Every structure is written in C-alpha cells, then in structure tokens.
C-alpha cells in the first residue's frame, strides 16, 4: 500500500510536530489507512471499540462477517493479538466496516432490537462447540433453555459440561445469545461477562 499525497501533512505532523502528534491526527491517519487498505483488499480484520451499558466492547469483522465481540475483562489488546495470530495480522480499526454491528448493538441495549441481522464468521469455533452455538441462535428473545436442553438439541444429552464450555468460549456474545442458557433449577449460572451482566440481559429481554 503506497503512501498517498494526502497522508503527507498528517505524517509530517506525527513525526515533526513541535508538540507531538495529536490524538485527532493519529485517529485520522489510522482511519485513512484503514480505508485504503480495505479498498485495496488488504484489510482482513476490521475492529472498533463501542460503548455499552456493560463497559467498552471490542467488535471485529472479517470479509465473511462478525467474528468477535469481546468484553473489557478479556483484555482487548490480548483479543486483537489472538485475532492477528489466528486470522491475519492485517488488522486495523475501521468504523465503516463495523457500523452495522455497532448500530445494532446500540438498538439491542436500548430494548429496540430483538434479533441481529449481520453475517457471522464462526471460524474461531469448531466441532461440538459450533453445533452448540448454532443452536443458541434459535433460542428466542426473552426465553431461556437449560444446559441439558441445549445438549440434547446439539445431539448429546449428557454433554452439559461441554455446553457450558461452549457458552463460556462463545466468541460472539449478545449476537449468539449464550446468556439465554440457564441451569435446570432456574438459576442463571456463569457468564463470560460476569453473572451480573447475564442477569441484566435476561431482565432487559423480559421487560421488552
């Protein structure tokens, strides 16, 4: 990817500015580089940080679809390093490539969206875990299923622990609603974002 003449003023400001680079200049240069990389087919993973009632979320997409939604507690830098290792090091922030999922998450948290309409990239999930996550997408908004019900639907009624593991390793929470899987006694169980987040999501869906 060659340097565009339009980038030169920004680059000079970053390198030789008397007060150092401003945050706005850095953000503009990153955005421009991401746009050009995308246009030239060089951007394999696009990401952004979005605000939510549960803290900052990292969302990442590939050309195939949404591949990751990560909580702060997962450490976003670690998540990005993992994506670079498992998918591609050609990864940059891009608002344009992530606008759809950012908007839909906002609508969901506001109680104005019951399902997500974005393509998914499930390459980070294989085997039984993928079978489980595919079933989770069928659990309707405002409803729940037990771990044993999910295990049965996934083809192995005795695999409750494996279902729990699939939920705890769900790379796309909210969109793939692992928060709708609860214990047989009705207690909510564990959740990657924390049990308090799971309880809040279930309460949100029950109220709308």
Q: What are the SSEs and their pairings?
A:
Blueprint: H1 8-16, H2 23-39, E1 45-50, E2 57-61, E3 66-70, H3 76-86, E4 91-93, H4 95-109, H5 127-136, E5 145-146, H6 147-153, H7 160-168, E6 181-182, H8 195-207
Parallel strand pairs: 1-4, 5-6
Antiparallel strand pairs: 1-2, 2-3
Helix pairs in contact: 1-2, 5-7, 6-7
List keywords for this structure.
8 helices, 3 domains, two-stranded parallel ribbon, single chain, Arc Repressor Mutant, subunit A, 208 residues, Double Stranded RNA Binding Domain
Please state the overall shape, judged from the principal axes of the Cα atoms.
Answer: globular
The CATH architecture of the largest domain comes to: 2-Layer Sandwich
Question: Which percent bin holds the helix content?
Answer: 40-55%
What topology, given as strand order, has the largest sheet?
Answer: 3-2-1-4
């Amino acid at each position: 990817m060659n340097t565009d003449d339009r980038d030169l003023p920004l680059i000079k400001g970053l390198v030789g500015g008397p007060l150092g680079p401003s945050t706005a200049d850095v953000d503009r240069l990153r955005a421009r580089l991401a746009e050009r990389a995308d246009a030239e087919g060089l951007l394999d993973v696009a990401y952004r940080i979005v605000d939510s009632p549960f803290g900052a979320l990292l969302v990442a997409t590939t050309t195939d679809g949404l591949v990751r939604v990560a909580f702060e507690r997962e450490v976003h830098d670690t998540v990005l390093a993992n994506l670079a290792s498992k998918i591609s090091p050609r990864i940059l922030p891009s608002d344009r490539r992530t606008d759809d999922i950012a908007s839909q998450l906002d609508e969901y948290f506001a109680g104005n969206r019951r399902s997500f309409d974005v393509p998914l990239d499930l390459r980070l999930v294989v085997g039984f875990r993928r079978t489980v996550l595919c079933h989770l997408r069928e659990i309707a908004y405002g409803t729940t299923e037990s771990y044993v019900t999910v295990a049965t639907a996934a083809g192995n009624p005795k695999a409750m622990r494996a279902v729990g593991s699939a939920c705890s390793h769900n790379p796309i929470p909210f969109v793939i609603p692992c928060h709708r899987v609860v214990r047989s006694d009705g207690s909510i169980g564990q959740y990657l974002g924390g049990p308090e987040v799971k309880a809040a999501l279930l309460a949100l869906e029950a109220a709308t």
